[in-house]
């Protein structure tokens, strides 16, 4: 038991750069206080002392602003950062090395008895204000974005954002992604205004459009070459020069900045 408490304390150093020493963590971290109260109340709950367990968890809520039902199963090295407003329901299960931020709800969608709260596998991170509802499973290593509402199962390693939550992936770094970036730069478009590891479903959709446009451009070139081989001159289409469009766009932006500064 003491080894698990020690793990709960020292895991804070790995996930909160503001943590300075053990004494500070023990005395000033409400997430740790709520977790220690839960370890006690869960032990009472499993031994059939239901009222005393609920009374202990209610006291913890008054003191920390974090509500964890004593029936919830919490794994090792669990960390709640800031913590205010966190709610974890009775049949929720949390694996090892999980992290929750303030305002997170692991809630139910039914008044029926039985399993009605989510299960978080190991190494799950849930951002501030996120809601995970129903008896769903969040896979190992998944990331739930801030203020997301998740009502469907999430595969291992996935990142979920939005309302309702939808699975997105990290920005790719393969050769196709490099070609896409080059084509976007050629037409003067920047779909990469966010950090590479921050998934953006809108940018992802635009990426697919860029791939499609580039494929069409290559197909037109191939068809034109085939027509020339059989003696048919397809003619020159009056298409705008992409490089010139990009330069014109830059000039317009510079002019707008000058006007704004005046």
* pLDDT averaged over residues: 82
Beta strand count? 15
Q: From the alpha-carbon coordinates, what is the Rg to the nearest angstrom?
A: 27 Å
Helix content: 40-55%
Q: How is the CATH topology of the largest domain named?
A: UDP N-Acetylglucosamine Acyltransferase, domain 1
Overall domain count: 2
Look at the helices and sheets and give the structural class: alpha/beta
Q: How can the largest sheet be summarized?
A: 6 strands, mixed
List keywords for this structure.
262 residues, alpha/beta, UDP N-Acetylglucosamine Acyltransferase, domain 1, six-stranded mixed beta sheet, five-stranded parallel beta sheet, 7 helices, 15 strands
Describe this structure in words.
This protein is an alpha/beta fold and 262 residues long. The chain folds into 2 domains: 2-168, UDP N-Acetylglucosamine Acyltransferase, domain 1, CATH 2.160.10.10; 175-261, no CATH class. Helices cover 44% and strands 14% of the residues. The protein contains 7 helices and 15 strands. The strands form 3 sheets. It has a 6-stranded mixed β-sheet with strand order 3-6-9-12-14-15. It has a 5-stranded parallel β-sheet with strand order 1-4-7-10-13. Strands 2-5-8-11 form a 4-stranded parallel β-sheet, with no helix packed on it. A hairpin with a 4-residue loop joins strand 14 and strand 15. The longest helix is centred in the last third of the chain and has 29 residues, at 201-229.
